[in-house]
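Lecture notes, part 5. Sequence design as translation. It can be helpful to think of inverse folding as translation between two languages: the language of shapes and the language of residues. The source text, in C-alpha cells, appears below.
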C-alpha cells in the first residue's frame, strides 16, 4: 500500500487580519528598497568625482554617438570617433571665442551704462520717501570694509576652496573625455561583455534593462540639448533685436540653464533683466521680462511636447520634485542629473515589469 504524503499544515492563525499581513509585506519590502537606495547613494557620494565624470561621459557619448555612427558607415570606427571629437571641440571653441569677443567688445559701453544705472539708482534712493543721506551710505561702506578686514582669512580660505573645486572639475572633465572615447568607439561591445558574465536568464533581463536605461538617458540628453540650443538662439536673437548688451553670452547662458528644467533658463534670463535695467532703463527691462514669458510659453507648449515628451515619460510634478530633490542632495549637479536619472530608473522599471507580465501570460497552466 503506497504511503501517503502528509499534507502541509496550514500556518497558525495569530488573529492578524489578512489585509494587515499583506500591507506589512509591502512595507518591509519598501523599507529594504529604501535602505538599498540609501546605501547606493552613500557609496556614490564617496566617489562623487567619478560619478560626475561617468555622467558627463554618458552625456558626451549620447550627443556624439549618432554622428560617429553615421560616419562609421563609410569610415573606420576609430577615425569616425576622432572626427566626432574634433567637430565637438571645434564647435565649443567657436562658441567660447564668439562669446569672449562679444564680451570684450561690449565691456566699455556696458561699463558706462552700469555707471549711469548706478547713478540713477543713487538718485532714486535719495528721492525716496525716506531718503538715505550720504552719511548712511558712507557708514554702510565702512561697515563692509570692516567686515572684509575682520574676515579676510575666511575670504582667502573660500577662494582656495574654490580653486580646489576647479581642479576637481577639470579632473572630472578629463576622466569623462577619456571614458567617452571608449564608450563611443566600443561601448556596445563593453556592455555585451558585461552581460555575458551572467546566467542566460539574468543576462537577458540585464540586457533589456541596460538598453532601456541607455535609450532613456541618450534620448533625454539629445532632446535637452536641442531645446537648450533653441532657447539660447531665441534669447540671443531677441536681446540683439532689442539692442541689449551681451546678447550672445546671455544666449549661451540660457542654453546651459535649460539643462535644469523649468527654472534654469528663467534664472539665466534674469541676468538679461539686470543688464537691460542698467543699460537701457526700466521699460526695456520690462520688455525683456515679456520676452522671457514668450520663450517660456514656446518651451512649455511647443518644444517640450514635441521633443521631450517622447524621451521623458514623466509627469511634470515628478520632474519638479526630482529637480528640487537633486538640488538638495548634490547642488547644481544634482539639479542637472536628477531628471535623466529618474527617467532612466522609470524606463528600467517599466521594461522589467513588461518582461514579468509577458512571462505570466505565456506561463503554462498547471
Amino acid at each position: 500500500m503506497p504511503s501517503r504524503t502528509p499534507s502541509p499544515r496550514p500556518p497558525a492563525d495569530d488573529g492578524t487580519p489578512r489585509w494587515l499581513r499583506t500591507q506589512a509585506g509591502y512595507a518591509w519590502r519598501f523599507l529594504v528598497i529604501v535602505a538599498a537606495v540609501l546605501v547606493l547613494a552613500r557609496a556614490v557620494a564617496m566617489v562623487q568625482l567619478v560619478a560626475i565624470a561617468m555622467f558627463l561621459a554618458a552625456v558626451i557619448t549620447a550627443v556624439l554617438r549618432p554622428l560617429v555612427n553615421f560616419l562609421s558607415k563609410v569610415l573606420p570606427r576609430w577615425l569616425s570617433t576622432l572626427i566626432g571629437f574634433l567637430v565637438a571641440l571645434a564647435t565649443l571653441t567657436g562658441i567660447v571665442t564668439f562669446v569672449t569677443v562679444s564680451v570684450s567688445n561690449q565691456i566699455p559701453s556696458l561699463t558706462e551704462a552700469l555707471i549711469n544705472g548706478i547713478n540713477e539708482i543713487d538718485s532714486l534712493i535719495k528721492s525716496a520717501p525716506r531718503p538715505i543721506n550720504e552719511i548712511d551710505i558712507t557708514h554702510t561702506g565702512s561697515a563692509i570694509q570692516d567686515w572684509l578686514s575682520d574676515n579676510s582669512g575666511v575670504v582667502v580660505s573660500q577662494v582656495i576652496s574654490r580653486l580646489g573645486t576647479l581642479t576637481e572639475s577639470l579632473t572630472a572633465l578629463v576622466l569623462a573625455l577619456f571614458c567617452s572615447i571608449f564608450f563611443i568607439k566600443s561601448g556596445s561591445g563593453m556592455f555585451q561583455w558585461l552581460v555575458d558574465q551572467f546566467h542566460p536568464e539574468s543576462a537577458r533581463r540585464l540586457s533589456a534593462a541596460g538598453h532601456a536605461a541607455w535609450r532613456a538617458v541618450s534620448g533625454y540628453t539629445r532632446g535637452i540639448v536641442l531645446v537648450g540650443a533653441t532657447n539660447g538662439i531665441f534669447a540671443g536673437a531677441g536681446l540683439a533685436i532689442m539692442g541689449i548688451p551681451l546678447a550672445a553670452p546671455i544666449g549661451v547662458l540660457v542654453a546651459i540653464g535649460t539643462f535644469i528644467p523649468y527654472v534654469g533658463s528663467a534664472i539665466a534670463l534674469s541676468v538679461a533683466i539686470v543688464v537691460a535695467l542698467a543699460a537701457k532703463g526700466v521699460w526695456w527691462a520690462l520688455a525683456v521680462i515679456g520676452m522671457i514669458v514668450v520663450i517660456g510659453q514656446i518651451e512649455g507648449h511647443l518644444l517640450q511636447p514635441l521633443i521631450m515628451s517622447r524621451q521623458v515619460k514623466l509627469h511634470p510634478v515628478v520632474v519638479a520634485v526630482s529637480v528640487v530633490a537633486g538640488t538638495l542632495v548634490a547642488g547644481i549637479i544634482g539639479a542637472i542629473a536628477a531628471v535623466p536619472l529618474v527617467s532612466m530608473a522609470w524606463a528600467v522599471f517599466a521594461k522589467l515589469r513588461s518582461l514579468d507580465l509577458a512571462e505570466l501570460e505565456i506561463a503554462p497552466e498547471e
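The translated text above is only one of many valid answers, since several sequences can fold into similar shapes. DSSP finds ten helices and no strands in the chain.
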